[in-house]
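Q: Here's a chain of 50 amino acids. Please give me its 3D structure as tokens.
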Amino acid sequence: MGLSKRDLNRKKKSLESKLEELEEKAKKNPMNKQIQEEIAELKKKIEKSG
């Protein structure tokens, strides 16, 4: 069973908010590779969902 449009929108919004938080952390510590990788993964997931 697939997700409804409402559920998809919620999922996308939560991914976007996580992305914003990670970008703030990345600004404080730009050399952290783990944060950079997580940001790249979230951007891919947002592109897929939207």
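Q: Can you summarize the key feature?
A: Residues 14 and 46 are 10 Å apart (CA to CA).
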